[in-house]
Design brief:
By secondary structure, this protein is an all-alpha fold. It has helices spanning 15-37, 43-50, 54-82, 84-104, 108-136, 141-171, 175-192, 210-233, 238-260, 268-271, 276-304, 309-314, 317-337, 339-357, 366-393, 401-434, 440-464, 466-477. The two termini are 24 Å apart.
Length: 501
């Protein structure tokens, strides 16, 4: 994909310093994605250790996801306005402190509060780190390789979380799943102080759309809460309906505010820039399947195949390896086949693996039922994630890079919440329908098979969108004849001369 912005970043570094900066920024992303999944296999131990109820146990996961997903846009914009390095360091410091607090928690309220603070810190870290990667690596092969590393780390973090959760819980105890995240974030924060300082924004640029920020944050919190509660209480539960209604009204209010605010949180021009809009739509579908995959795979292994937490975690290694391989291959494939052909191939590869996975059996084994399809899924996931991340931020005004990074992380996170709610409800209803006629493990397997089959359909639908991405990219690559809009990213736009923060 071609960028229509400047061909060289004013803050790009020599290769050696850029490589060191990439290691630090990738480490920040790894810590964030690790903490998303590290609690999954440890939840029973956490429940017993802190005295959580069943609903309280779900909030150990949901508190982090709610804060993370709802505040990503605000975190991205804060980086643009206040300085990305500054916001990255603050987010890492908060994340480290909250992680250590979670590991020391002896009461449910303290643990859930610490998980919420973790999510707030992550919402600052993820978009700021991605914006700094885009800032330090100008368009070209170097950026492609950097995004390949970024994709490999993102996928590996999710799988490593499941592995680390099982290993630490069985060896050192559940508090260490949080302590390890905290120590890791503290180390990354110390290393991030070596990143080059960037110019602060001009005083006139220090404006934040507070009304839009409040509306979208509360709207996304209500949406994620409603979808999460629907899995447990059903779609007709009054609390679920109230949450979803409030989410609808708040998000509509956000749209109205954005249309009239002079410094809107999401400039309308951003969604018409390059391939930002279709790439984020595809990322929503990818997020739905990604989160669902890492949720259902350990359940199938533990509840049907009888594996323990450690074995279930170790079984994620082939998927993580394939994911890293796909991420490293993505830039080379894009150079030979073209970005959009590579994206379509990655999505279709992932869809075929999920279709294969939908054939799992109640009498199966890891080697017979999981190894082959997870290798195929991981390969396609790695390729697709790198290409979609690139498409979602390419051609964006450098001053809005943090916001674009926050947006693509938001769509993946919210897509994951929506997908898990829908797929979880589908799996549960399929299992309930099969229960009178089949054994418990066979009924559970039917539910997981249905979830994997629908996941394959969602990813295939994402592949159908790739021609739209290609058309938008072709239009963006054609120099505009009319004067540039305020948020335009043409080479002669005044916005491209502003200091990147």
């Amino acid at each position: 994909m071609k960028s229509i912005g400047p061909t060289r970043s004013s803050h790009s570094l020599p290769d050696t310093r850029s490589g060191a900066a990439l290691i630090v920024l990738a480490g920040a992303q790894f810590v964030v994605t690790l903490s998303t999944s590290i609690v999954n296999v440890a939840l029973p131990a956490v429940r017993d250790g802190v005295g959580l109820s069943d609903s309280g146990m779900s909030w150990v996961v949901n508190a982090y996801g709610l804060a993370f997903g709802a505040l990503l846009l605000s975190g991205g914009r804060a980086g643009d306005l206040l300085g990305r390095r500054r916001v990255l360091l603050a987010g890492l410091a908060l994340f480290a402190a909250a992680s250590i607090t979670a590991g020391l928690a002896s009461t449910a309220w303290l643990l859930i509060g610490a998980r919420t603070a973790q999510g707030i810190g992550a919402a600052a870290v993820a978009p700021a780190a991605l914006a700094l990667v885009m800032q330090l690596f100008p368009p070209g092969p170097g950026r492609g390789r950097a995004l390949g590393v970024w994709g490999a780390v993102s996928g590996a973090g999710g799988a490593a979380g499941v592995l680390a959760g099982g290993l630490l819980t069985e060896s050192l105890g559940w508090p260490w799943i949080f302590h390890v995240s905290g120590f890791g974030a503290a180390c990354v924060c110390a290393a991030a102080t070596l990143l080059p300082a960037t110019a602060p924004p001009a005083p006139a640029a220090r404006r934040l759309d507070l009304a839009g920020t409040l509306a979208v944050t509360l709207g996304l919190v209500a949406l994620v809460h409603g979808l999460t509660a629907a899995r447990r209480s059903g779609w007709t539960d009054p609390l679920v309906l109230t949450s979803l209604t409030a989410a609808t009204l708040l998000l509509l209010l956000f749209v109205v505010v954005e249309r009239h605010h002079p410094a809107s949180l999401i400039p309308p021009q951003l969604l018409t820039t390059g391939t930002v809009a279709p790439a984020n739509l595809d990322m929503t579908l990818l997020g739905a399947v990604w989160v669902g995959l890492f949720f259902f795979l350990p359940l199938y292994q533990q509840q049907v195949l009888g594996a323990g937490p450690l074995v279930a975690g170790l079984s994620q290694l082939p998927l993580a390896t394939a994911n890293m391989l796909g991420s490293s291959l993505a830039p080379r494939l894009a150079g030979r086949l073209g970005a959009h052909v590579t994206l379509a191939a990655g999505l279709l590869t992932q869809a075929s693996g999920l279709l294969w996975l939908s054939r799992v059996s109640a009498q199966g084994s890891f080697l017979a039922d999981l190894l082959g399809p997870t290798l195929v899924i991981g390969l396609g996931l790695g390729v697709a994630f790198v290409q979609l991340t690139s498409a979602a931020v390419t051609g964006v005004d450098p001053a809005d890079a943090g916001l674009a990074g926050g947006l693509v992380n938001t769509t993946r996170q919210i897509g994951g919440a929506i997908g898990l709610a829908v797929l979880g409800t589908l799996a549960a209803s399929t299992t309930a329908g099969a229960a009178p006629h089949l054994s418990r493990t066979e009924a559970l397997t039917e539910g997981y098979r249905a979830a994997f089959l629908v996941s394959a359909g969602l990813i295939a639908a994402g592949a159908v969108l790739t021609p739209l991405l290609a058309r938008r990219a072709a239009r963006s690559a054609t120099p505009a004849q009319e004067p540039a809009a305020p948020h335009s990213t043409t080479p002669h736009s005044p916005a491209t001369t502003r200091s990147t923060r």
